[in-house]
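Chapter review: from sequence to fold.
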Amino acid sequence: MKKIALTFSALFFTLISFSQGIAVQGLARDANNTARTNASVPLTFEIYYLNSSNNPVDVYSSTSTLQTDAFGVFSHVINLPNTTETQFSNHELYLKIKEGATEISNEVFKRVPLAYAASNGVPTGSIMPFIGTAAPAGWILCDGGAIPIDSNTLTLRTLLGSANAPNLQGMFLRGTGTSPVNSQDGPALKTTQGDAFKSHAHADNFSIPNGGSHSHQYNDYRMNEASNGGDYANGDGTDGFDYVRNTQNDGNHSHAINGSVSANGGTESRPVNYGVNYIIKL
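The C-alpha cell string follows.
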C-alpha cells in the first residue's frame, strides 16, 4: 500500500493570517521513497492543543484531496474560521496531517517572538476602548450581550463566571483593590461601584455685625392731664400722636441666622470624556 513519507525537513507549514489561512507544503513519497508524482492524495489536517491532563482538544479539522506536481510536491492552504484565532492566543497548537489512518506529521506551530506577539495579541479577558460599533474578530462588545457558546469562548466564560459579556455602557474602568495614594477602595473584581460625592463643606459669607447696646424710639400719644380729664392730647391741648418714647435698652447682643446654599449643577459628577465602546477579548 502506498503511503506518504514526510520528514520535518520536507514538510513546511506557516500561518499566513486568519483571513488567508495556513500554508502547507510537502513532498509525497511512497514506501520505496519514490516521489508520488502527478497523484491525487487525500489528506486530513487536524489542529489541536493539549489540556492540563495532556489530552488533545480538537480545534479544527478538514480533509482535502491534493494534487502533487511532477516532483511529488503538494501545496495547500487550510482556511481557518476567525473563531480559531483565540485558540492561537490562548494555547500552544499542533498540526497533525494524516492520509487515512496513517499519521504523516504531528508538529507544534513554531513562531518567532515577533510573530508570536502579533498572533497572541492580548490575553483572553482583556478590555480595551474601541471606536467601532461592531467588535473585530476575536472580540465582543461589552454591552451585556450573550457570549457565543463554543470551544473558543469557554476560557472567557470561565473567567467571567457568566454567559454574558460585562455591560460597560456609560461606565469608566477603575482598578480593583485599595489605592496606595488615598487609601480608597475600588470595586471588587468583576463588580460595579455606585457613584458617590466626597463629603465636603462650603465656605459661607453669612455674618451679622454685633449691634451693641441700643434702644429704639417710637411715637406715642401725649397725655394732657390739665384738660379733658386726662385724655391723650398734643401739648397745645389738642389730640395728637407726637410724643417720642424709647424702648428699654437691650444691651450688647447679636442675632442668629438660618439658611442654606441652593442646589446647582447636573445629575452626576464627571470629568471631560470621549465616547467609545469597550470590547473584551475572547
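Two observations follow directly from the output. Residues 8-119 form a domain with the Immunoglobulin-like fold (CATH 2.60.40.10). The first helix runs from residue 85 to 90.
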